[in-house]
Amino acid sequence: MWWLAIPVIVYSLGLLALWFILVRHSKGTSAGDEGLAEGRTAAGTPVDEGLSEVSAVANTPFDAALPKVSVVVAARNEEKHLPALLESLVLQDYPAELLEVIIVNDNSTDRTPIVVSGFISGRRDQPGPLIRLIYNPFSGKKKAVRHGIEKAAGMIILTTDADCNAGPEWVRSHAEWYLSGFSGRSEADSRLQAEGSSSGEKQRRATCRGGDPDMVMASVFQVPIRGFWSLFDVYEFSALQALTEATALAGHPVMCNAANMSFRRDVYLRYAGELRPDLPSGDDMFLLEAVMRGGGAVRHDGRMAAAVETAGAVTAAAMLRQRARWASKALHLRGAPTLILSAATAACNAAVTAAAVTACISVEYMPLAAAIYAVKAVPDYLLIAGEVIKRGNRIKAVPFLVSEIIYPFWFMVVALMSLIPGSGGFRGR
Fold first, then answer.
1. Which end of the chain has fewer CB atoms within 10 angstroms, the N or the C?
2. Total-model pTM
3. Residue 380 confidence class, pLDDT cut points 50, 70, 90
């Protein structure tokens, strides 16, 4: 049975290489980000003081070059989640005249349209971005998102989900990546140097100079609700987020999440016909592949200011449906890095599952099975821990170990469910 260790070793070495990329990158960017997260700039100046200093360059060509952004949210039966999201969007640190929020009512049967309309009416005389409620004349989230993008006025589209919450610099963090594509940027850079704005602001703006990206992805953090399955969801999702960032930093992004991504509107419309409208979801991944095939630039923003937060699943059944829907996309993806990672992951989990079953049948193989599990657990822990620590949390040892034991079997069940049409349903990302 020793040969079962080969795919596990290959997989683990690959994850360790990606983890090393994350560690190396974090050393160069963590100082400025941590300072901002703690309410202080990188220079140690309190944020209030830093902002007063930054205000000296407000409305400079830098800020004048900010693009108009349209936040597009497809919502189906989201009356409970939308108020919190809408509140976070109207509090964005972004010029109100350059921001619009489009909520697409995707054939809701609850009070979703009433909640949105009431929120709009309640803010009629208050400052803030334009909020629009439109209706999806078609069926399905993918078509709802496309309908919202076609109706959008912004040059940059920023997508998220109704059950997410964003910090006040979320829109700005995405938008500033696209500054190089607009006039006035070089003047703004010169002005920044001349005015001597805070080093924290310089760090933030310098980080954003990505070179005319077509698409920017950022982190999604899940918050555990209660129980083991919620933690299991958070740990697995954290691993996916780490892989998203690491592969993007390596120049070969293999996944993204429509809960937190932005792109040029013209780029989306250019590739709209390649996003598999016959499938209920997956337009985020299909757009990523289309952009990469077309030689476009894709960036990842790992700063906390660019992240959004959402709640993790509570039940195993809900997780299974969601993961099966996600996995069903893999059958239609064509990117070489994505296929390599998918094949390596499948081979690794199949080998671990086979080792565990063999050890249960014949106890003499238990030491080898335990060793195989340990080889896989080390890089898993490093990747997951890095994402969890970003949020100021820590991994709970017992739930993590239990998760590692059952995950290979979980993976195989999800893979089988993904082959059954309609098993994942249509809700969520």
1. N
2. 0.82
3. very high
